[in-house]
Amino acid sequence: MTEMVYGALPAHSGDPVLPRWWRTVDKLTITCILILFGIGILLGLAASPPLAARNGFEPFYYVQRQAFFGGLALIVMLIASMMDPRQLRRLSTVAFVITFIALALLPFFGTDYGKGAYRWYSLGFTSLQPSEFLKPVFIVVSAWLIGSASEINGPPGRQMSLVLAMISSGFLVMQPDFGQASIVLFSWGVVYFVGGAPMLPLLGIGALASLAGVFAYNNSVHFARRIDGFLSPDIDPTSQIGYATNAIQEGGLFGVGVGEGSVKWFLPDAHTDFIIAVAAEEYGLILVLLIVALYALIVMRSLLRLMRERDAFIRLAGTGLVCMFGVQAMINMGVAVRLLPTKGMTLPFVSYGGSSLIAMGAAMGMLLAFTRARPQGEISDILGKRNRR
Q1: Average of pLDDT values for 369-378?
Q2: How far is CA 225 from the centre of its chain?
Q3: I want to staple 128 with a disulfide (CB 3.0 to 4.6 A). Which of 121, 232, 328, 373 is the partner?
Q4: Are 155 and 145 in contact (CB under 8 A)?
């Protein structure tokens, strides 16, 4: 039955780790991730030299760093994908405690690098952004708590996960980082909804988030300026959105040519938040559609495999991780085409950023571990037997 469902031979406990991993892992998802990483390096070759020149570095300084951190991310992803769900749950719990403490201490020991938001720890040779690592481990811990709540004599996991979500997002808002806070709340909402919890608390969280948005708009000049810029019918051509919009229009279907784009010389975040504008200008709509298709394929492929999973924890954690992955990509590209307000959010595996790359590598490694083929029947088999009774 397993071969029919997954197209692979079932794993046996006595098999060596690597052959068992190769037979059971989702090779199509790994291939899509590697292609995205390759596209990121290709776009980095175009987008990062102007920034390196402005900062007095060699032309491909940032490309080399992206390749280094990307290599670490792929190693982390492969190691995590070889672990079993119990190991990942335990490691995620420990990692959540560490990242939560690091997040709480940011106002005292963090730095803003002149951007007005204390989100990073300066390590001298690089920086560390705790919120990037918090997201995947928070999802796994929430899935464990919510899944345990349905067990006999289980803990009040739904309430506990809600408290963790509110406190974590509260620390993120204090930085301020409304984008990461929204992803934390969104991911919790996905896990909560898939876990079969009632809708009323979700509606309450949505109402509170709306009130928080109104409060932030009235009390944060930075937040209000971004919302006003998004709602304005006119686009300032000298703003980041103005440059990005013009680049996407200039690119057309096939782009202006490799290395011929101009947006990278004007956008300070061309290698991170607006990397999709560089892709659209130099390579055209064709490459943008390929990138969108790769993200969509990873999300749909993973969700289809998770639908067959019988273990509640694996199903919840995997769904939360892949939805976080998909919505982060959607936010990044949505900002570039002015479908969403401006928000600093990296494009997974494509944008430059050490913390983002390594954290996303860990997240996708856990997702690959949760979607591995296991010697079991489909969950529909169990439901069918119950109905026949």
Answers
A1: 77
A2: 26
A3: 121
A4: yes
Rounded Cα distance, 304 and 122, in Å: 40
Closest listed residue to residue 348, CA positions, set 383, 381, 322, 387? 322
Closest Cα to residue 184, out of 202, 163, 169, 174?
A: 169
Sign of torsion, CA 374 376 380 386? negative
How far is the C-alpha of 182 from the C-alpha of 173, rounded, in Å?
9
pLDDT higher for 108 or 68? 68
Q: Is 163 helix (H, G, I), strand (E, B) or coil?
A: helix
The ranges assigned to domains in the chain are: 26-371
- Asked whether the beta carbons of 331 and 19 are under 8 A apart, the reply is no
155 CB neighbour count, 10 Å cutoff: 12
| Residue written as token pair 């930075």 | 222
Instruction: Dump pLDDT digits (tens) for 175-193.
Output: 888 889 889 999 999 999 9
- Please list, in sequence order, all residues whose beta carbon lies within 8 angstroms of the beta carbon of residue 335, skipping any fewer than 6 positions away: 241, 273, 274, 341, 342, 343, 345
Question: Which letter does DSSP use for residue 111 in this model?
Answer: B
Alpha helices in 221-274 (DSSP H): 221-231, 240-251
